[in-house]
Amino acid sequence: MYILSTIDLLIILAYFALMIFLGFYMKNRSKKSKDAYLMAGKSLPWYALGLSDASDMFDISGTMLLVSMAFLYGFKSVWIPWMWPIFNQIFLMVFLSRWLRRSNATTGAEWLKTRFGLTDRGVGESHKVVVAFALILCIGYMAYAFVGVGEFLQIFIPYERIKNIFPFLSHGETAFAAGSDQYRLALEISKHSTAQFYGVTICLVAMIYSILGGMHGIVLADVIKYMIMIVCSLFVGTIAMRHLSATGVNVLDRVPKSWDSPFFGMDLGLDWTNKLTDAKIKLEKDGYQLFSAIMGMMLFSGIMKSLAGPAPNYDCQKILSTKNPEEASKMSGFISVILMPVRYFMTMGLCVLGILYFKDLDLHNDSDGLLNFENIMPAVISKFLPVGLIGLVLAGFLGAFMSNFSGTLNAGQAYIVNDIYLKYFNPAATRKKVIAMSYLSGIVMVIFGIGLGLLIKDVNMIFNIITAGLYGGFVSANVLKWYWWRFNANGFFYGMLAGIIVSAIPPLLSVTGITTYFDGTKMLYFFPLFIIIQFIACIIGTYSAPATDTPTLLTFYKNVRPWGFWKPIHEMAVAEDPDFKANKNLPINILNIGLGMAGQILLMLVPMYLILNQWTGLGIVLALTAIIFLVMKRTWWNRLKDF
User: Fold this and answer.
1) CA atoms lying within 13 Å on the CB side of residue 345
2) Lower CB count within 10 Å: N or C terminus of the chain?
3) pLDDT above 70 covers what percent of the chain?
4) Is 322 left (phi over 0), alpha (psi -120 to 50) or beta?
């Protein structure tokens, strides 16, 4: 049990008060117009939006997972986030953010009319399926975050600490004999209620500044929070380096051979047998033994997901909120530069402290009896960080939760206001009514998000069903919409629908116990099958309806200027304007994607080599990073206006 000091509690409460103040402070600025509320009037600088987006990604659950992976997999853990994939930001940086921003749309669903027009068969259904996709995704993320933040905070402020302050949380455990089954059941219910109470409280704080301040308030709060996380990361990493020096322990003696190398062969090459039995079993369960094969599948899956562009969530909204297409690209590029070194300096710091003092950590066991390695982060924070810094770190992580929550909330509000209220109910709504509807939609989204979190016990499984099912159905239709002229709204609708249905079947079977879809890397094996089924549905749907009308295709092609299979439309564009040039940047885009992905991995390795005082490795990584930055200055930054 970890007990926070009064100073740490005051720091957290002061942070919450600051967030609420920001909401009221930004209220008048956000009420100027719909765009001012939902997109900050497209006036914010790219670096502020980039910091905000990075802040959304620096979450509690993800950092706990990264620390556990760094502990188990060492430097090879930098490759595992390709599962998500983290390199989608490189594709956005190189070309997709510019393409998306040129639409001048407010939401991903509104973007559809720039690609398919208003008269295509299936355009109405396509719009509805994207809106449904976005809202379900937003509510699922909010419910997951609600439960996760409550459980995390309860580690540091347990029920026993506040039961006398908030007696309504008690479920009468004192009425039973201590140690009896009735006592244990009542105590467990009281702890669960405490986690829910924390979740509701923090969600309400996030709701206040998000709904009142709009995008202005969200971005300002995110920037402040990220400044806190930078300070915390520097302190945590420095503390780890000092402990490493003071103890004189060689960390590499406590981990498997090649733990400190990012390179791998056909196999993972890590053997925990004589070091830690639970770690050996965990690696076998994760399924990364044939690491080269797994990395190949991750790369294929990640490239397909990245080519599809951003899902309709906070990332998409931040891109659409930039001043112009060039700044959209800069914003996406800045995310990796500001996120990776800072996050991994903290991750590696916590990991090294976990290795040094592993025997002193209370990690508890998970459902299968193994040590829960994800508890390394909270265990290290509570035992080895000084008073005050613990409060600052927790405030930063709770701020990370609120960043993710508020960004998701803002995206949901945009869909409700733009794609439901203004489209179907009141197209001529006044500014006052639009702002009022934005407030109302935000409250409704929070109610649904908290409600789902309160009703569902196994929120991780529901989260996986939503993300695996919805994201699994997202890929083919959203790849084809960018790169193939003949693809139409009918193909988009049937591709999305088929993909979502088929992709949701294995997760649903996993809930019933028929399959173990979420164990280790099994999700990757289903992905090619999902792609094939979606692609077939897209083709059948496309050729069962006429092509999108020529004026819409011409306008889209000339504005967005994509590369791909657009030859018939290009010929028409040249017939109208003989000076029109095709986008021939595919080769340079591929080069920049390769350089960007390599640079992203190097930025993750820099703090890992630094904290372990491996100066040769650090020098090589820094030199390679500098070379990539210099090359991309010429091949990417200087060419941002070239298509």
Assistant:
1) 22
2) N
3) 92
4) beta
Pick left, alpha or beta for residue 561 (phi over 0 → left; psi -120 to 50 → alpha; otherwise beta): left
For the cut 90, the answer to whether the pLDDT of residue 105 exceeds it is no
Helices (H), 581-614: 586-611
57 contacts 310 by C-beta, under 8 angstroms = no
Find residue 371's DSSP bridge partners.
365
- pLDDT value at 318 more than 80: yes
Residue written as token pair 């116990």: 513
pLDDT digits (tens, 9 = 90+) for 471-490: 666 799 999 999 999 999 99
Q: What is the mean pLDDT of the chain?
A: 87
Residue tagged 């259904």 (tokens): 125
CA neighbor of 3 nearest in space, from 401, 378, 363: 378
User: Are the C-beta atoms of 383 and 360 separated by less than 8 Å?
Assistant: yes
Pick from 262-276, 304-318, 377-391: least confident: 304-318
* Closest alpha carbon to 310 in 134, 140, 136: 134
Contact 402, 19 (CB under 8 A): yes
pLDDT value of position 605: 98
**Residue that has been written with the tokens 């879809």 in this structure:** 517
DSSP H helical ranges for 26-165: 27-30, 34-39, 46-57, 60-73, 88-91, 97-101, 108-116, 123-156, 159-162
Q: 565 by DSSP, 3-state: which?
A: strand
Say which amino acid occupies 520: G
Residue 463 has pLDDT above 80, yes or no: no
């039961």: which residue's tokens?
A: 163
pLDDT in tens, 122-172: 888 888 888 888 888 788 878 877 877 787 788 788 888 888 888 888 877
| Residue type for position 199 | G
Query: CA Rg, the chain, in Å?
Result: 25
Q: Are 4 and 178 a contacting pair, CB within 8 Å?
A: no
Residue type, 320: L
Compute the distance between CA of residue 419 and CA of residue 416 in angstroms, rounded to an integer.
6
SS3 408: helix
Cα 443 to Cα 259, 289, 418, 436, 437: the distances in Å are 48, 46, 16, 11, 10
Q: Count CB neighbours of 428 within 10 A.
A: 6
Backbone angles phi, psi at 3, to 5 degrees: -110, 125
CB atoms within 10 A of CB 460: 14
Tokens 């008073």: give the residue. 387
Question: Which amino acid is located at 207 in the chain?
Answer: M
d(CA 392, CA 18): 14
The residue among 475, 549, 504 whose CA lies nearest residue 136 is: 504
Residue 469 pLDDT grade (very low, low, confident, very high; cuts 50, 70, 90): low
Burial class (CB in 10 A: 0-12, 13-18, 19+), 397: buried
Whether residue 400 is predicted with pLDDT greater than 90 in this model: the reply is no
**DSSP code for 491:** H
List pLDDT tens digits, range 352-374. 999 999 998 887 766 567 788 98
